[in-house]
Every structure is written in C-alpha cells, then in structure tokens.
C-alpha cells in the first residue's frame, strides 16, 4: 500500500489518501460484476488503483494543469480515473455519456484537452469521428477493452505499478486548494455550454457544508446512477468517500434502477425529479387500475399519511386515533412503496430540476424521505436544501452553512460563499456579468420567507413576455399540466404572442395503461386519439382555473414523439432547451396561433 499523509485534507487529491487511512479495509464501492453479483472494493484497494493510474498518466505525459476529458457512464472506472487525473495535478473536463460526437468535440476543443478517457468502443467511436478536427488531442485512453488507436486502462495501471510511489505522494502534496480541479460544462439550455472553473477549495468547501448537515453518514450506502459529468453526482461521490460511506454504482440500465435499489437497500438516493415522477405515476395508475376496495384503501392511506406528515412538520404528534389509522395504512400500503426504494432510505435528495410539491407530499406521506435541494454548477453543486427536521414542501430549503443568500431588486436570487466557482473558462465577460461584488447572480427568480426558506419561481431567461407586455413564468404552469399521468413533457409558449399555447408529449407507459382501460384505443396512434385529447382538454381546463386569464393555456398540440436528449430538446439533466424546441416545432406552434 502507498504511504498516506496524516494531514487534514485540503484538496480532492488528498481526500482519498486520508479516507483510506481512516477506513482502509472497509467497503468504499459496490458494483455488480459480470456474474451479476454485488462486489465490494475497499478504500485501501481504491487508493492503490488510483496510485497506479496516476503514475501511469504521469508516465504517459500528463502534466499539472493539463485538461483531461472523461467520457463514459457512471461506473467505478470513471471514479478511479477522476481521482487519478486530479492526483496528477491535471484538470478533469467531463463529457456526458449521451453526448453526440459534435458535443464531445465542443468540450474537448474548448477545454483544450490533450487527453480523453473513454468508457468503451461505442464512446471511442465518437472520438474517432471528430479526432481529425482536434489537433491538440494527443492520446485516447479506454476504460474497458483495447484498441489499436488507444491506450488501455490496464496498460496505464501496469506502467504505474512499476513507478516510484513517492512520485504519487509528491504530486498530491503539490496541489493547492486554489488550483483548478474541474471545468464542468453547463447544460446549455439557452445557448452553447459554458465551462465552469471549479477549484479544489470550492469542492472542499462544498463538502464541509454538506457534512455539517449530515447529508451522508459514515457506513451508509448511497446508490448512484446520476451522470458523473454532472456536479451533483460528483459531490455525492466525494462526500461518500470523505465520511466513510459506501457508493453503490448502478448497472447502467434505466430499467434496472428500481431492482438495484431493492437489492442494495441504500440509506441515500440522490436523484432527479423524473425518477420520483415515474414511481409516483405508476403507483397511482396501479391503484386506479385495481379499482374497488384496493383503490379506496390506497387513497385513504395517502390521505392519512399526509395528515400525519403535516403534523410532524409542525412538530406535533398525531392523536391516538390518527396514529392507529396511520399504523394500519403503513401496514397495508406504505411498506410497499418504501420497498420500491429498498425499504432503508434515510434521505432521498432531488435536484437539478423542479419537482411537483404534490409528488413530495405523496412520498412523505408514505414514509419515503424525499427532500428538494437547489444548486447549480456555479455553486460547485449546492446552495440550499430541505433536510429532515428542517423542511417546507414547495421550497428548496434554507441556505447551507457558510452560504449567504439574498434577493436582488429584480427578484433574482444572489448567493455568496466559498463554494462559488472561479468563473467561466475563456469567457471573462460572462464571468463579470455573473459574479458582481462577490455575489453570484444565479439567474433564478426567487423569494425567501421569514424562516429563511427559498422558493424558486422561475428563470430570468425563461420569462415569457406576451404581446400585451405581461411577464409569465412558464414552469409553474407546466408543472400542473404534468400532473396528469398521460403527460410526459409540457412546454408552454407565448413570447410576444397574444396568448399562451402548449406543446405536450405523452408518457407511453401511461398511454398503454389508459388504452387497456379504454379497450378500443390504439396506443400506437394515441396522439391522434379524440379520447386522449378530450382527457387532456379537461385536465388543462382544470389547470387554467389556478391562473389568471393571461396565464391560461388557450390551445395545445400533442407532439408525435417525446422530447429527449438524443433529439436535442433536453439537456443531460432533462431540462428543457426552449430555443431548440421553439425552432424545431415552429410550424406546430404557428398552427396553434393561426387557428
């Protein structure tokens, strides 16, 4: 084993050696091997592998300050490479595994990466398609397998195993908190992605903040499926290791997320709203499909659970009768919902996009501890969070320790803290517009109540200004439309137009259930179905009752296919790319206004 410094960690490079010193033989990672069995890897083994990889990268020519891109799905090899690059003093410029070859080219070209680490043959092929347009890209490294035009991870580790371990220690110790560890590219909802420069000190500050509120505890298992190219997943990765937790990697299959949760039984499940939406919609639809006494019991149980949860949030306990009802509801309904997540959850944080408060209330009623947090790449992940014992549904929580927040005169949320990034790579103008007098201008419109809880009301760049000059935030309207299980995505349009219209896509699983209930409906042509259109018309009429006339949807169009990242309409974190959608469906939008 490599020698380990006993000094307090200052950077992400010395985080792992410090963790290995404290938790050595304990399990750091869990993953499914080729035999389909969950296998654990100790902190000692992780450090040993990272040392070999680091020395292999140095032998290959990686120097401090070099940019190295990592292109692949969330897996143990990604994490090992991430730590190795940082330990060599280099900077990681991650690429989402779902990115197209041109999108990969953009990150590699803009960051000036000399090296790129790819997961497998499929990701390697993306680089092959653009490599001749990247003269500064010197070497491609593969995590899995071998190729004539790449260096394998096994080769790197073999090189590193023969090198002097003292070089690894010296490399780690030479890194300072102010040194850059990441250039993370934003999702780019309104334009090309910008590279957020994040220092080792930024991430260490973010870890201190989350550990102060016990996001992850020692010995706890955290299930991770989020892309490691995203700052949320990276923070969870570092946080788990720093406190001696276990990180369980998914099987890289969307259909296996729920089965994996049942097998791993994690205490922590960081996620995005879409996962909770799908589980919620399936549970509701299954109950409705059961009908009769089963549906009645389900609905009764949820009502009881919400009453109890509301009392608990006020610091009160239910009376004897309500407590008995709750115990019965728990036995008949709630245990089944909790078992979907493994039955052991302590904290399920949702972030990256807004979530419908009703979905949170549903899960809280069932005893599934879903809490909404807020942050952005520019804050090195976080800024505010709801947590057990300190939460308000419908808000994104209170400022984390060490974070200052306030609302600007125009309603924009401003933030200050040691976790605020260093600026945008190669874009001083954008940096100066975003960080003013030490305050990060987040671009989010928000309010802060008397208890310090923050409510996000929209994005400044997404505000719709109608032809009549009314300012409208579309996200709140879209959230209510999406409460219908048939709706997968909703995009409200109306900038410089006389009224609002909506583009709607259908959830195919919900459509299949709806078609089975109707009997005569052909799910393959559901978008043209008068029955589904009538169902959505009634739903939108109900949604409109919650808004002023100028904020109501007057007409809508069901699109033939769902929005997706592959189609270019969604970011990797499933946010809407509104300009792309408006351009792609310009004809459909114009027809809604022509009729």
Write out key terms for the chains shown.
Rossmann fold, 595 residues, GMP Synthetase, Chain A, domain 3, five-stranded parallel beta sheet, disordered N terminus, 3 domains, alpha/beta, five-stranded antiparallel beta sheet, globular
What would you note in describing this structure?
The protein has 595 residues and is α/β, with parallel strands linked by helices. The protein has 20 helices and 26 strands. The protein has a five-stranded parallel beta sheet with strand order 4-3-5-6-7, with helices on both faces. Strands 16, 17, 19, 20 and 21 form a five-stranded antiparallel beta sheet that branches. A hairpin with a 2-residue loop joins strand 19 and strand 20. The radius of gyration is 25 Å and the shape is globular. It starts with 14 loop residues before the first helix and ends with a helix. Mean pLDDT is 90; it is low at 1-6.
Summarize this structure briefly:
The chain is of the alpha/beta class and 595 residues long.
Q: What Rg do the Cα atoms give?
A: 25 Å
CATH fold type of the largest domain: Rossmann fold
Please estimate the helix content: 40-55%
Number of strands: 26
Instruction: Quote the beta fraction.
Output: 15-25%
Secondary-structure topology with pairs:
Blueprint: H1 15-23, E1 27-32, E2 38-42, H2 43-60, E3 67-71, H3 76-87, E4 91-95, H4 101-111, E5 115-118, H5 121-130, E6 139-142, E7 151-152, H6 153-161, H7 165-173, E8 180-185, E9 195-199, H8 200-212, E10 221-224, H9 231-243, E11 246-249, H10 257-264, H11 273-290, H12 292-313, H13 320-340, E12 348-350, H14 357-365, E13 370-374, E14 384-385, E15 398-399, E16 404-407, E17 412-416, E18 423-424, H15 428-434, E19 435-436, E20 439-448, E21 454-459, E22 464-465, E23 471-472, H16 474-481, E24 487-493, E25 500-506, H17 508-518, H18 530-544, E26 553-558, H19 578-584, H20 586-594
Parallel strand pairs: 1-11, 3-4, 3-5, 5-6, 6-7, 10-11, 12-13, 25-26
Antiparallel strand pairs: 1-2, 8-9, 9-18, 13-14, 14-15, 16-17, 17-20, 19-20, 20-21, 22-23, 24-25
Helix pairs in contact: 1-2, 1-9, 2-3, 2-6, 4-5, 8-9, 11-12, 12-13, 12-14
